Amino acid sequence: MLDVSDAVRAEIGDEEADRLLTGQNAPGSYDCTSCRTPGYPEQERTSTVLFVGGDTAVLAFAHASCIPSQVVSVSEEQLQGAVRSITGETVPAAPAAPAPAAPVPAAPSPGGPAPEQAVLGVTCGQILIGEELHPAIVVEPTGPVVRPGSTGPGDDFLPLLIEAGFMPVTDVGNVPARLPGWSVLVAMGQLHAVLQGASGGGRPSAWWQAHQPLPLTDGWRASANQRHQVLVYAAPAGSIGQQPREDLMRDALEKAAAGGVLVAAAMPLTGT
Fold first, then answer.
1. Which pLDDT band, with edges at 50, 70 and 90, does 144 fall under?
2. Residue 248: what are its φ and ψ, rounded to 5°?
3. Which of 44, 104, 134, 155 lies 20 to 30 Å from 120 when distance is taken between CA atoms?
């Protein structure tokens, strides 16, 4: 009951794909790299997920109910971290929340010049909307973000995100709309990256990625796997701050929304 997508088959070749499908190279059991619970290919549908780095590729397995079979591009450093996790070697842990800031392209600029570097801080938590908890990521730069190619002062972080499809938030009590082409990469039960789809349907690339995979709480992972999506909020520097508790993060989001400086999008889980 193994799923091998066309994209994975193209990367590993027909011969290896057929060996997987006939059970020659398929595992008898595995730990789902999304929900971290056991999986059994002979009893339940299982996805093959190929992580591709600079010079390395790693094939992982996940419940098909968690994520589909696909190819995911990650940095070589992240891929080596995943290999260490799979083989049982110790990987240095990152703080749970707020997550360390990571230098990444400040904002997407389809068809334009390469974006300047900015430092984005990411905090993970759950947001109560109505009577239900939703997994969320809050992104906030440590300083102003200028438009790629611009040398003038100012902060273009929100305008750039709105141009990319994020929507302004006026009420945190509403679930934001899904943003096509974007996704959140959770691998080995840890947050790796926010991925942006390439124009023309190419392989997605990291808009933000962690220096080290970030630990996630059991509640966050359970909520993400139940809903198969993550709510991503973003605000300019100084709008949210690194809040140590989810209730304080919610209060900060509401203040940012009231001030007209909050945007958001819902994104599906990808990877594992």
1. confident
2. -70, -35
3. 134
